[in-house]
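Page 47, continued from p. 46.
Same chain as before, 81 aa.
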Amino acid sequence: MPGMSLKITLAEMRAAGARAVLVYCRACGHGTRLEAERWPDDVRLSDLEPRFTCKACGARGADVRPDYNSAQRGEGALYRT
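Result:
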C-alpha cells in the first residue's frame, strides 16, 4: 500500500528472540497471538498485514507486531487459526 512503511522480516524478529506475532484489527481492536513458525524468514510483518480478516467484525487488514513478551516467558501458542 502506498505510504505504508516496511516492517522487519520474520528473520529479524526471530533473531531478537520473538517467536510469535500479535495481530490487532485496525477497525475494532480485536486481537490474537499467532506462532510465526508457519511463515518463512524473508516475509516482512508488513507483508502479512493485508492478509488478515477479523473474525469479530470482518474488516480486512491488521496491525502485526512481534510478541517479544512470549520470548521472555517462554510460552507457546495461546490461539489457533
